Amino acid sequence: MNRRIVLKSRPQGMPTPENFELVEAPVPEPKEGELLIKHDYIGIVPAARLRMSEGPSYAPSTLVGEAVYGQAVGTVVKSRHENFKPGDVAMTLSGGWQEYSIGQGKVLTKVDTTVAPKSLWLGAFGTSGFTAYVGILKIARLQPSDTVVVSASTGAVGSVAGQIAKLHGCKVVGIAGGQQKCEIAVGEYGFDACIDYRATDFPRQLAAATPNGIDVYFENVGGAVRDAVWPLMNQAGRVAVCGLISEYNDGKGPGPGWFNVLTKRLSVTGFIVSDHEELREEFYRSMARWFAEGRVRVREDVTQGLENAPSAFIGMLNGKNLGKTVVKV
Amino acid sequence: MNRRIVLKSRPQGMPTPENFELVEAPVPEPKEGELLIKHDYIGIVPAARLRMSEGPSYAPSTLVGEAVYGQAVGTVVKSRHENFKPGDVAMTLSGGWQEYSIGQGKVLTKVDTTVAPKSLWLGAFGTSGFTAYVGILKIARLQPSDTVVVSASTGAVGSVAGQIAKLHGCKVVGIAGGQQKCEIAVGEYGFDACIDYRATDFPRQLAAATPNGIDVYFENVGGAVRDAVWPLMNQAGRVAVCGLISEYNDGKGPGPGWFNVLTKRLSVTGFIVSDHEELREEFYRSMARWFAEGRVRVREDVTQGLENAPSAFIGMLNGKNLGKTVVKV
Lengths: 329, 329
Known about the structure:
Two copies of one chain form a homodimer.
Chain A: E1 2-7, E2 20-25, E3 34-43, H1 47-50, E4 72-79, E5 89-92, E6 100-104, E7 109-110, H2 127-139, E8 147-151, H3 156-167, E9 171-176, H4 179-187, E10 193-196, H5 202-209, E11 214-219, H6 223-229, E12 233-241, H7 260-263, E13 267-270, H8 280-292, E14 300-304, H9 309-317, E15 324-328
């Protein structure tokens, strides 16, 4: 049988365990061109929360009764596509929170575990790392002289975005929740500084850490963090809006700091990584080199057991994770 | 003597007549390289409100006791610069609300009144028209297939921005306050439609007028108008933030519609026309041709007498003007 975590009800505000249900279903059969993949790891992503809401968005809503959205890395059990054979390792963008999924052979990524271990193909080598790469280089149009601020700077995306900016010669200041995360951002990921947004004088500390202003803001969070960053932006600054995790449950939108968009001539650009597939090969080559040279470091927050995916997810939305959140099935 | 309208006190919220004072001062003497200009027309611009507030912005605040900010067109009375002689007509970006000003010969624009009458060098041929040109073509990166929405669509900037978009083959929908303005936007400026933002079902009417969504939003207003537009934007839509007049007095920033920046991958870009001087010659050539061919039409809202500049300004901030607001000195 295929154990699955399905959406039982749509969350109102922050999700609770009652929004999820563990169910069993027959293991599906691949059709011509398809594979059956047994999941080894599932990636837990904030975007899953976006898909739990109804209404127009950039992606279809998860239906109630459907497996929750997430990428997965697993082992091919049955293949009806010439590119894959049983035993191959594959990464699927739409595997979902379950033990097995069906994938289309022509779109799946075959994973090379000699480059990086399986689970990293959900993190630094997966959608998280690719999102960081696209956002910081293409959307934010990084220049070596930039002062870059990254929110959620120890998260799966933010930690890579900041390290890529460092690799390109930028000054990088992280924002994270709590002293421990800030120490990791500086000590492990090499950020020049990291400010705890929970500090009462957070805006003042951020200003002190960016004496030349901010040229690029890599936005993962929104809310009060954004409202502190925007007034510090330099003229013609760029904001790459990768995520707005603090607003997924109850977004209010920017406060008066929004006005800086006009007065500072900011460019605020939202992006979704799936629009930028043309960069994926270049990303793989770059990340493989940086990782092999030890110039990009990664952390994972591994939860054991599919049944614990909801608590890992809720913990991540509350900032409890340290690094890429994955579930070992 | 030089009659001047000076800032008497900084407005809190909407300006009132008490914030201004008419004073007299000696007519200044030009130094080497300078001109003395006697103002014929003064351009009344929303940006003057921005400069009445203290605190960081894109331009210095007007000091209390200083003439209020505004462009002027006038006649050269004395010249100590080789490019100008008495009797020439000049446009000065910083003439201010007064009868005379000193200008730098090397930066002033000599006005050709055979191309357009004097006052239009404050409107369609002046900063207003140039702002429209830069914003719609360079910042919004106009494409002929775009559906374009312009707020304040009968204003000095919006009316030109919409007409330039029409000249480039776009579908153009205006937003304005009241039926009369909407009729002018369609009947006189050739917009495809214009929606009255005061209508109770304004968001529904706007959606009905843009069945293929909105690709470009030329933003002059902010506030509730913006909050109605953003949810109708198409993927990868572009918002050129030219002004936020409804927020100059008490900005709150975008509401939850802000979220579309992420989900629709919008690019929201603020701009200030003075950053784009490299386009000015191209703009003059284009506007002169369009105007001569009758393809850009203009309206002016002329107030007689310098002493009435404050009421013209307050009226403009309240949307009472129809076309470019100028004061005939």
